[in-house]
């Protein structure tokens, strides 16, 4: 139990470390779009009833009371001024710079319809009391000898367009729902830890997470979210990173490991130093990346913009020619004006303007929902021509984590009993369980997967680069290189050596386990006899008499906890007992308790119950003593890990908490090799399916790796890749990409490491660079896309979603052009009233938006 005094307060306390001022807070993604949508909605709520009133009174003679036209005129005023103000403002701003936009056509249509109607009302006879108008979708010359008014047309132009623009703004905002949900999942509060430099006393202060500064220390209790990006200073745990990566398996975290804000601490207590805050955090960077992609323009959109820039002046010219043509042909002024206004309104290329950005917004939003971050819109078009995908092996096709592949046992020799696979694996895993080496973890996990129990280990040592040694009830167990075992005098049978050679030839790693029954007897050797040995080759230290050994490990269910302060209260209460260390998990409502002094279950439960909670011990495992017997009447199969003796340092790769010693290993060890254990980097479960999906998309997968040919071929065979390029250095990877590009191929590169950065950059120049989210910062920085869940199937999904987005863009553009080609001639011929033209134009815009929203279900 730590001797630091911990105090929790609600006021801010200064950190003892020098902190860098916090950076700008993370931006609120989509807030501007939401405000714009809300503004359009307010205008629509006011204008829609007024517009509908104007339309009904203008088209239903039975409801046309005396003076109805003046009511319509007054009702139209707020619609054509305040309601249409966004269009007028945009048109005026463009006109000041000598250009035209789609809003120019809308503004001209509304203003001309309104001015004509006021002229007809005041001077054209339409203002006479008793005037009647009849419903007419096709314009007429006049009604009852009076000029026709188009207030309803001007109003409905505004209403239809406000509806379309509102749906567009809402689609923009909804496209970022997944991202905003992710950003909202960040921690709201943090437990700031400040340390008194004089006394070492720690003070904990609950502060807003946004107030943390670079260099601040903060605590993360079990079940809490990491407040911001940082590095673990103290404690070990497993972090649930599914929020960012989609991976459901928690990731182990230990001192020195980097942690990401918003990930969830599942078990142990952590002390973290903040390294990035505010807008510099990973979450904020993801937000900016998605926002930049949504704001970007694909080449096809820039083409549409250029067409719109030429199209608007042409439409204005066609409208004027229509007006002049009708007059020259002997048509009435009203008929000429109606046709000219209808051309202005129906030809407005709003659908053309919406075709690309709406699809990009929805497509990139859906991609982020699937864990795919797209840097800019140009990437969408690049995916169309991708025909080759280079895949890095380690961390991309494989997990980058070793797993046990096989166990080959040696036959019994002479009177030595034959050892089977399970017993050999159990012995090796018992010793390797105290090491942090990747091979050791693979062996331990392999034993766990087979449901094997581990032997208590009473002494342990690590020989860096060679192997490990442990003392069990069966004597000494050595696991390591065959050459190391041979140097100790242990004979390794030819069958085991052959298994090692075959494993290494196929790119796997192999170690040999040996059993030395008499090695454990050296535990009784005295320090004096050890000192008398002039040249002791290696030593294992056993716990000294003053070492504090754990007597038992308990699991307790703790009911009634509602917040992080409850967790700290339970930990403090239990920590006041001598020799008790507790780690409480709020999420699972449980506590893991380690005892170095005897305490009964009832005593521990009483302490928790007295604190106002309900504690029940659900399991208790007694630890073994140093001589291998159960401690304190415990179970020989209990917890075997013991704390490191003060003043000793675990060996390289040795797990902190392993037993320490002063036992001498003789120059020669009497023992025999019992098994070869083969471990290999595991192929991801999704890789084979991903390769099949890439082929369905017409993309040839190629494995590109710096590993040897045998290892690469083995992996390629498992996932179905036919072409392999192995033994390539980082510069060689870049050159390989360039060579394929020179052959006329459009190349995508998928990688995760610093050694892939150059190749990713080369691929991005003329193709596509895709980084795995578990990769290094430099790889993610140079890539065009980032796959946050690190599954290779996401690469195929990214191509599929991008290509579907591009297809939707093309569909939108087709229908936008088709609409204009169909409707403009009808308007020129005088077969469309301005109101019907505005309805048709708005419907085309709504169609484009709805078509784009189909991307929300893309997979």
From TrEMBL:
One of its GO terms (biological process) is copper ion homeostasis. The keyword Endoplasmic reticulum does not apply. It is found in: Cell membrane. InterPro entries: ATPase_P-typ_cyto_dom_N, ATPase_P-typ_P_site, ATPase_P-typ_TM_dom_sf, ATPase_P-typ_transduc_dom_A_sf, ATPase_P-type_domA, HAD-like_sf, HAD_sf, Heavy-metal-associated_CS. Keywords: ATP-binding, Cell membrane, Membrane, Metal-binding, Nucleotide-binding, Translocase, Transmembrane, Transmembrane helix, Transport. GO terms for cellular component: plasma membrane. It is a multi-pass membrane protein. Residues 552-616 form the HMA domain. Residues 1-32, 523-544, 618-664 are annotated as: Disordered. GO terms for molecular function: ATP binding; ATP hydrolysis activity; copper ion binding; P-type divalent copper transporter activity. The chain crosses the membrane at residues 44-62, 68-85, 105-129, 149-167, 307-329, 335-362, 812-829, 835-853. It comes from the Bacteria. PANTHER family: ATP7, ISOFORM B, P-TYPE CU(+) TRANSPORTER. Belongs to the cation transport ATPase (P-type) (TC 3.A.3) family. Type IB subfamily. This is Heavy metal translocating P-type ATPase. It comes from Schaalia odontolytica. The lineage of its organism: Bacteria, Bacillati, Actinomycetota, Actinomycetes, Actinomycetales.
